[in-house]
Input
Amino acid sequence: MVKKYSNASNKRYVYPLPVHPTLNSNNPISWAIYLYKCYTNYESSQIAISITKNGQIMVTERESMTYLWEHGFFGTGTLSRSEPSWFSRTYNDDSSTNVLEAITERRRLQRLEFKNEREKITKRLNELRKKRDINSAEDIEGIVKEETRLLEIERESLRNFKEKQESLSASIWKQKDAATSLDIDLVNYESLELMPVEALFLSFAIPVLNIRSDDLLNTLFHENANCETINRFINKYVAYHHYRSHGWCVRSGIKFGTDYLLYKRGPPFQHAEICVMVIDSQASNDYTWYSTLSRVSSGAKKTLLLCYVEVMLNNEEVMELWQKKDLTTIFTNCKVGEVIYRRWVPGKNRD
Amino acid sequence: MSVDRDSIEWLVQTNLLHFQKWKNVEVQDRSLSWKDRKIKLLKGSPPQSSSEDNLDENGTIEEYILPVSLSQYNEQYLTLECLDEVYKQLCDPFTERLLLAIVNDDGTIVFYYIYKGIHGPGKV
Output
């Protein structure tokens, strides 16, 4: 399962974050270049964002959208499942036949075809069974034969269906490199949207956006935003930053009702392994709340991780530092604790 | 009527038309004032019927869509009372369900049907 992705994917997603370390230990000149780049913040101020009045953070330039997706899977295409592929899907360039949405669509059609076929056979079998009840012994032999034949057809179509679905999986990884030359006249309705925590990460931790972290937060939060709102945001960001710095690819967990999903490398490579729920370290919910999360996550074959964030400052201190936008002090006073929560059925699994 | 391109109505409309391939998706004129916001519904037709759909005489289905936005740190406003008002003031009297479009702050929109009370099972 591990080696199925192609060289193209490996090559395309070679950088896990939007930084390009050029440091080569054997070459002193590269040290100088590296230091110079750090000093002048070479990578920063490159990517333009705009913030709508609803607080949505949008990247609209095609190159920047691709850049952020390819360097750590930041953001989501507003008209796509994750990678902003609407443009190539719509205008049908070469790369579009293998984007995730196209594959899902083909799978869906195959499933539909199989279901229709199965329904026809089931109907025919039911008719035969009714006949069997009212007919005499001589006819029954013929009916049984017919039944056997139908069952064989049904099995055959199930085999075909499974084969088709498998061959489709294999073809995903033969993806070509995305076409680079595109007609500029075509309208692109799609933007790449960044979660607030992603935007903060890309302006505070790895500054590549053309906005400073304090300006970003001043735009996203009202001047008189309450303490609760700010604390909630700090908790979410601390968790996000924590997993990003441990090398995970962190994306929104909205589809599974959790805060985040953790990918080992990124969505094109494998499914997310872990669902993360960020919780204030003081919080305790009733047990149905945990059950709800746990059952959904395990139903999608994911592990549920509860991430407790403790801010070791009182509310007044947090608010004061927040006003000054001294994020470093706030974040260095945070602690993260983790718990894995998994259902155990006594009769079934014994580990 | 032109739609404000910053609004969540516009986002949901664009998503339904260009991503989910819905047809005739329009923002409704009627609106409801709730707390400090104005709620507007959208109306449109999905590209194919799911098993539990009730088709009208023309073979098309029209769904009402209620757009709401969800952010990771703000509290939400939707209550039972609010839904009741939406059904009363913004829908036809025989409307059985709404499609709730939750605009997440990561660029995805997730959809949930909200039925008026218990609803019989569809074909599996």
User: Anything to note?
Assistant: The interface with chain B takes residues 52-56, 75-81, 86, 90, 189-198, 229-230, 232-233, 236, 251-252, 254-255, 259 of chain A (CB under 8 Å).
